[in-house]
From TrEMBL:
GO cellular component: cytoplasm
Function: General (non sugar-specific) component of the phosphoenolpyruvate-dependent sugar phosphotransferase system (sugar PTS). This major carbohydrate active-transport system catalyzes the phosphorylation of incoming sugar substrates concomitantly with their translocation across the cell membrane. Enzyme I transfers the phosphoryl group from phosphoenolpyruvate (PEP) to the phosphoryl carrier protein (HPr).
Catalyzed chemical reaction(s): L-histidyl-[protein] + phosphoenolpyruvate = N(pros)-phospho-L-histidyl-[protein] + pyruvate
Entry-linked PROSITE patterns: PEP_ENZYMES_2 (PS00742), PEP_ENZYMES_PHOS_SITE (PS00370)
The organism of origin for this protein: Pseudobutyrivibrio ruminis
GO BP annotations listed: phosphoenolpyruvate-dependent sugar phosphotransferase system
Annotated Gene3D superfamilies: Phosphoenolpyruvate-binding domains, Phosphohistidine domain, PtsI, HPr-binding domain
The protein's name in its UniProt record: Phosphoenolpyruvate-protein phosphotransferase
Positions of the Phosphotransferase system enzyme I N-terminal domain: 3-123
SUPFAM superfamilies, A to Z: Enzyme I of the PEP:sugar phosphotransferase system HPr-binding (sub)domain (SSF47831), Phosphoenolpyruvate/pyruvate domain (SSF51621), Phosphohistidine domain (SSF52009)
Presence of the UniProt keyword Cell cycle in the record: no
Binding residue positions for Mg(2+): 428, 452
Domain PEP-utilising enzyme C-terminal: 248-536
Length: 567
C-alpha cells in the first residue's frame, strides 16, 4: 500500500494508464534574427490561446463554468503584459523563445512555490502548466489524448495539469494518482468536480507502476494499492458501495440549516480567495464567507491594485453572496507570501518578521486604500473587516483608528458605507491566544486560524519534514489554546469563528461544539460534509468526549480516541 494526499473522496478500482512526461530539453542558443524568433514566439502564444480557449469551453460544457475559470485564468496570465512582455524583451536581447519562456516562468514559479498557503502555491502550478504548454508548442511535441482512454482507467502521472484534466471523459476514468499536488491544487479541484477519486503526492508512483497494472484509489483515506489480491479488491468493492450510499445521504442537507443533534443552530461559512470563488460558496450551500483572502488582488500584477479595483472585487463577492456575511481579511503579506513590487527585504525568519498587520500599519497610505475599498463595498451587503497576525491590543486599536479616518474621508466625499462595520481579528498566534480576553474587549469578532496557531504554538516549521510530526491541531497545547480563545470570545459576547483547516475536520468538530464555537468556515466543497457531522453531535455528547480528550497527554492518544468516537 502506498500513501498520498486524499484529494478527491471515493473509491476507484481499475486499470492503470501511465502518462509519461515528454522530454522538454532544448539548446539555449543566441538568436541573431530576433524578429523571426519573436514571430515564432507569438505564433506559439496564439496557438496556446486557441488551445486553452477550447479547453476552457470543454470544461465549461462537461464539468461546469466555475471549473472553466481555471483555464480562463491561464489565458489571463499569458495576456498579462508583465509575463509575455518580459519574454519578448529576452528574445529581443538574443535569447531563443524556449529560454525566454523558461526563465520568466521559472521566476514566477519560484516566487509562488515558496508560499505556505496552498492556494498561493497553486499559482506556481498554473504557471508551470503554461510553461510546459508553450514549450511543447515551440518544440512541436504533441500530447497523449486522454479523452481516448478505455472505461475503467486509473490515470497515473507526475502531475495531472488542468490542460490534461480538460480532456477527461468522466465515464472512462475511475481514479487519479499523481506524484505532486495537494487538496487545493487544480487537479484536485477538477477531480472533485468530476467526482473522480484522487490521491496526490504519492512518492515516485510513476516509477513504481506500469500500464495495465490494477490499482485501487482510496481518495477518502489517501491510500493506493497496486495489483492487490482478490481479498483486498473485495473489501474495497464493499467500501465503494458504502461511500456511494453515504454521498447520496449528504444531499438531504442541501438547503438545510446547520444545527447540532440537540437543535443548536450554528453558522457554516466558506473560505475563498477570489470574488468568483463566492459563486462556488453559493453553489455548495455556504451560509456566508468566513475568510476572503485579499492577497490574490495584489498578486499576478506588476503594481498595487487601485482603490477602485479593490472596491469592484469586494463588491462582486458581496453581491454574489446576496446579503450573507462576507469577512474580508486585510492584506496578509510577508512570511511565505512575497510580492516583488512591494520590495520586501529578505529576512532570516520571515514568519516572525515584517508581515501582515505589521507591514500594513507601517504602510498606512497603502493600507487605507484597501480599507476604503472594503468600506465602500460594505454599502452593498454585510461586510466585516478581519485583521491578520494580531499579537497585541495596540494593533487592533491602530487598525480601528485607520478605519475611522477612512470613514471620515468617505463621509466628506459623500460616499456610502456601513457605519457599523465590524472590525475583528484573526487569533493565530500564541500571544493572541494568551490575551484573548483582552483582545475580546477591542475586537468585534474572532476568527481562529488554526494553521498558523498550530505553527506558532508548537514552535514548528510545518515545511520542515524533520519536525512535521509536531504540526497537529490535536496537540494538547493547541487544543487548550483553541478552547481558551473560544471561551474568552463567548464571555465577552463576541462571535468566535474558525477559518483554519481544522474547522472541517470530522475529528475536531465535536470538540469545537463542546468549546462553544459558533461559526465554522470551510472549503466550499466540504460544506455538506461538515453540516452532516455537526448534525450528529449533541452538546452533551461533545462535552463528554472533550472531557476525556483534555485529560489525555499526547497527540497520539487524542487522535486515537477521536477516531474511535467518530460518528
Amino acid at each position: 500500500m502506498y500513501k498520498g494526499i486524499e484529494a478527491s473522496r471515493g473509491i476507484g478500482i481499475g486499470s492503470i494508464c501511465l502518462i509519461v512526461e515528454h522530454d522538454l530539453s532544448f539548446e539555449s542558443k543566441h538568436i541573431d534574427d530576433t524578429e523571426a524568433e519573436k514571430a515564432r514566439f507569438n505564433n506559439a502564444i496564439e496557438a496556446f490561446k486557441t488551445e486553452t480557449s477550447a479547453m476552457a469551453e470543454n470544461i465549461r460544457k462537461n464539468i461546469g463554468p466555475k471549473e472553466a475559470e481555471i483555464m480562463e485564468g491561464h489565458l489571463a496570465m499569458i495576456a498579462d503584459p508583465t509575463m509575455a512582455g518580459e519574454m519578448t524583451k529576452m528574445i529581443e536581447a538574443g535569447q531563443c523563445a524556449e529560454a525566454a519562456v523558461t526563465a520568466v516562468c521559472d521566476m514566477f514559479i519560484g516566487m509562488f512555490s515558496k508560499m505556505e498557503d496552498d492556494m498561493m502555491r497553486q499559482r506556481a502550478s498554473d504557471i508551470s502548466d503554461i510553461k510546459i504548454s508553450l514549450l511543447k508548442l515551440l518544440l512541436g511535441i504533441e500530447d497523449v489524448d486522454i479523452s481516448k482512454v478505455a472505461p475503467g482507467t486509473v490515470l497515473v502521472a507526475h502531475d495531472l495539469t488542468p490542460s490534461m484534466c480538460s480532456q477527461i471523459v468522466k465515464e472512462n476514468v475511475v481514479g487519479i494518482i499523481t506524484e505532486v499536488g495537494g487538496k487545493t491544487s487544480h487537479s484536485a479541484i477538477l477531480a472533485r468536480a468530476l467526482e473522480i477519486p484522487a490521491v496526490l503526492s504519492v512518492p515516485n508512483i510513476t516509477e513504481i507502476v506500469k500500464d495495465k497494472d490494477t490499482a485501487i484509489v482510496d481518495g477518502t483515506e489517501g491510500d493506493v494499492y497496486i495489483n492487490p489480491d482478490g481479498e483486498v479488491i473485495s473489501q474495497y468493492v464493499i467500501k465503494r458501495e458504502e461511500f456511494v450510499k453515504a454521498q447520496a445521504e449528504l444531499k438531504k442537507f442541501i438547503g438545510q440549516k446547520t444545527v447540532t443533534a440537540d437543535g443548536t443552530e450554528l453558522e457554516l461559512f466558506c473560505n475563498i480567495g477570489t470574488p468568483k470563488d463566492a459563486r462556488k460558496a453559493v453553489e455548495c450551500d455556504g451560509e456566508g464567507i468566513g475568510l476572503f483572502r485579499s492577497e490574490f488582488l495584489f498578486m499576478d500584477r506588476p503594481h498595487l491594485p487601485t482603490e477602485e479595483e479593490q472596491f469592484e472585487a469586494y463588491k462582486e463577492a458581496v453581491e454574489i453572496m446576496g446579503g450573507r456575511t462576507v469577512i474580508i481579511r486585510t492584506l496578509d503579506i510577508g512570511g511565505d507570501k512575497d510580492i516583488p513590487y512591494l520590495g520586501l527585504e529578505k529576512e532570516e525568519n520571515p514568519f516572525l518578521g515584517y508581515r501582515a498587520v505589521r507591514y500594513c500599519l507601517a504602510n498606512s497610505d497603502m493600507y487605507k486604500i484597501q480599507l476604503r475599498g472594503i468600506l465602500r463595498a460594505s454599502a452593498f451587503g454585510n461586510v466585516k473587516i478581519m485583521v491578520p497576525l494580531v499579537t497585541c491590543v495596540d494593533e487592533v486599536r491602530a487598525v480601528k483608528a485607520l478605519v475611522e479616518e477612512c470613514k471620515n474621508e468617505l463621509r466628506s466625499e459623500g460616499v456610502k458605507f456601513d457605519e457599523n462595520i465590524e472590525v475583528g481579528c484573526m487569533v493565530e498566534t500564541a500571544a493572541a491566544s494568551l490575551i484573548a480576553d483582552i483582545l475580546a474587549k477591542e475586537a468585534d469578532f474572532f476568527s481562529i486560524g488554526t494553521n498558523d496557531l498550530t505553527q506558532y504554538t508548537m514552535s514548528v516549521d510545518r515545511g520542515n519534514a524533520e519536525v512535521a510530526y509536531l504540526y497537529s491541531a490535536f496537540q494538547p497545547a493547541v487544543l487548550r489554546s483553541i478552547k481558551n480563545i473560544i471561551q474568552a470570545g463567548n464571555a465577552a459576547g463576541i462571535t468566535v469563528g474558525m477559518c483554519g483547516e481544522a474547522a472541517a475536520d470530522p475529528l475536531m468538530i465535536p470538540l469545537l461544539i463542546s468549546f462553544g464555537l459558533k461559526e465554522y468556515s470551510v472549503n466550499p466543497v466540504l460544506v455538506l460534509t461538515a453540516r452532516s457531522i455537526i448534525s450528529k453531535w449533541s452538546k452533551a455528547e461533545a462535552d463528554a468526549l472533550a472531557e476525556k480528550v483534555l485529560a489525555l497527554t499526547t497527540e497520539k492518544e487524542i487522535v486515537e480516541l477521536l477516531k474511535a468516537s467518530a460518528k
